[in-house]
Structure prediction request, 438 residues.
Amino acid sequence: MDEGKAPILVSKSGRAAPDVEIRTNPSQANRRALVFILVTVTLDSMGMGLLVPVTPKLILELSGEGLARAAVFGGWMTAAFAAVQFLAGPILGSVSDHFGRRPVLLVSLAAFGLSYVLMGFAPSLAWVFAAQLLTGLFGATPATAGAYIADVTPSAERTRNFGSIAAAFGLGLILGPAAGGILASFGTRMPFFVAAFLSLATVVYGALVLRESLPHDLRTAFSWRRANPIGAAHAISRRSQVAMLLAALFFQRVATIALPATWPYFTMQEYGWSTRQIGYSLAAYGVATVFMQAGFLRWIDSHIGTRKAASMGLTMLALGYLGFAFARGQWVVLTCIPLTTMGFMAGPALVSMLSVRVSSDMQGTLQGVVASINGGAAVLTPLAMPWIFGVFSAGYAGFVFPGAPYLLSAVLALVGVASVYFDATSGVKRVAQKEATE
Prediction:
């Protein structure tokens, strides 16, 4: 049975897990709230993207070091952000299961705004690090937004709405750097203040239009046992049997991050591309991923179902990477980039499959685990994949093979396909055993 048609689950209280009134009769207020969620995620990621062109310059100003040293500082900041987000995701997810989605969303956005203000006024590099840690701590806006979507969306429509969230996040990352480059002409600190304004203005907007999506009778007590990545994943897997899908999601995240982490180095060595060509190709890649998540995923999901959409996306991702790893010639880029962008369909599809397995009182915890998976992949992949490229492109392994990171990514994507398959077969066995006992 396809996950998009899964039955309504029951929470620990014995009540129907979904808020039936909200899902079957969506009001104008709920539609405004859904628009708010998408606008929030777009502005959130756009705020982060605004800082990309100017953060190196700010580090140079505050550190007094050269560009090489500034790049190291920037890498530490990125890793610190992702590491804190990895740890904080389940905490905020569990908090939203207890207090509701609305306060967590608004407080997270306000904290984002404050972190940008701190960076705008930062007198030293330590202040910038502190602001990045604050941003990572409250960087659960997409996760809490995902829990909100799960609360107010019928299971059959979740895949396309999760895809819209991912597309909104990607759109912000595309628009943000371009706007940041323009704003930087007015001063190094200007993009930080604009990002702060966007976040704080969204808080005000949300306070006016956003209604709470999680009723009091479907909330659960906060638990430190599941307010950490391992405990939260164990709690969800034990209650909902989703371990295989969580593994598939992790492999998908690592595989999709591998391309932007290694693409500049790979294309410079293999094709002699300039910085401008690399920039154009990554911009096209970003636009294609937004299209896949916002448009094509809806069509695929409605025609073949959520599970097949996840498997198809992972399979196409693997084929694209195998092309990069073994084929030669710039025609490969035009052929394989569309295939790899299809891998982004698998993320929202997998999250949708997970959400319909989990009751309403655990949706925040689930989305916190998803945020931890994102954070863990964001820390691991930029460290591992460029290192693998360096080892094999320089011949340290005894032979030259610049496509090694893409071969590994293809293998991970195929392991993700296998995880989805084994989850399906184990699900069939569970249903058969249940029917036999009844």
Notes: Residues 3-26, 431-438 have pLDDT under 50 and may be disordered.
